[in-house]
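Severity: low
Component: inverse-folding endpoint
Summary: output formatting inconsistent between runs
Steps to reproduce: submit the following structure tokens with default settings.
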């Protein structure tokens, strides 16, 4: 008799990703027989514990080393002990090495964004120190639907509405095997395998926007429109992702065409030709402006649509307005038909 359908589903999803990682390693590696290390990022919840269990099972079969990492955000009483317990359970499943890492969460961009930034910085450092080929993340189709709704509510652009990518990060480091699986599947997989899970109280705290979407907005939509809402939102994310990828490629090509020869004031910093920018379609032009702001040092997670709109007005609605300030201490100003975006200098 085969495994429970939920267990079979999570294992198949992880198996496919591990095959992709092995193929990537085979193309890039010159070391014959190297066994790549793949880490499961685990909070102790059902999604990530299901992910860890599937990694243990499939890694043994495929000759992959399976490890784990859990992050202590320090935002709850007893969080350090919780991280230690999660690490102990990951080792009990058979993962090795396993790291429990503490982070300091700042305030930039709000509590959820700050926690995410701290978490990914820790995952990057851990993957680099252990030489991991990839880090698996337990995001499900439900998480994807929530991300799309949050993007809609915030008036975000196509890239935000595209949700989470199956492969992301430097060199495709982050892999999300469960984006086509729902949350019920991961919970059932843990239940039938006898895996204890921890419910993060923040996931039910209405102070957090994602919790409100999960427990209030989505249930209302499903009651009014039917239970296919989550799957439809996830499909929408993929359609937006395809469009966003095409527009990003167009913008990357256009960015090279609009660079002016030099900054008009002679100081360091790239300048963009506003006449050439003006002729671009708005969706492409705004991507070029966003790329330029990020390259100048504005954090992408703090650069919102309203900032890009202000930049765009320096190109399309020029009335002699002065410089605008962007997150990260970056300044944008127009002068002599050039748009200069760079870090502000205090002596100005």
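Observed output (run 2 of 3):
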């Amino acid at each position: 008799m085969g495994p429970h359908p939920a267990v079979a589903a999570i294992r198949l999803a992880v198996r496919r990703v591990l095959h992709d990682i092995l193929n990537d390693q085979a193309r890039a590696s010159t070391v014959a027989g190297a066994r790549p290390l793949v880490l499961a990022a685990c909070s102790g919840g059902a999604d990530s514990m299901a992910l860890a269990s599937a990694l243990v099972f499939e890694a043994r079969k495929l000759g992959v080393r399976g490890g784990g990492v859990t992050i202590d955000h320090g935002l709850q009483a007893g969080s350090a002990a919780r991280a230690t317990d999660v690490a102990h359970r990951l080792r009990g499943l058979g993962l090795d090495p396993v790291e429990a890492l503490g982070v300091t969460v700042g305030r930039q961009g709000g509590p959820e964004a700050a926690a995410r930034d701290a978490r990914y910085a820790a995952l990057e450092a851990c993957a680099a120190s252990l030489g991991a080929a990839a880090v698996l993340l337990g995001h499900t189709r439900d998480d994807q639907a929530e991300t799309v709704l949050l993007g809609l509510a915030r008036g975000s652009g196509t890239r935000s509405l595209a949700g989470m990518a199956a492969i992301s990060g430097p060199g495709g480091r982050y892999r999300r095997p469960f984006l086509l699986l729902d949350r019920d599947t991961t919970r059932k997989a843990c239940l039938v395998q006898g895996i204890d899970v921890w419910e993060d109280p923040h996931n039910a705290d209405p102070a957090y926007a994602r919790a409100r979407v999960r427990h209030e907005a989505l249930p209302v939509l499903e009651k009014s429109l039917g239970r296919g809402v989550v799957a439809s939102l996830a499909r929408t994310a993929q359609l937006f992702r395809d469009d966003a990828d095409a527009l990003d490629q167009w913008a990357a090509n256009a960015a090279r065409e609009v660079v002016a020869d030099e900054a008009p004031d002679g100081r360091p910093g790239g300048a963009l030709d506003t006449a050439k920018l003006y002729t671009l379609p708005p969706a492409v032009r705004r991507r070029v402006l966003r790329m330029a702001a990020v390259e100048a040092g504005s954090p992408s997670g703090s650069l919102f649509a309203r900032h890009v709109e202000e930049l765009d007005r320096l190109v399309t609605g020029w009335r002699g307005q002065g410089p605008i300030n962007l997150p990260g201490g970056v300044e944008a100003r127009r002068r002599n038909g050039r748009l200069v975006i760079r870090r502000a200098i205090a002596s100005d």
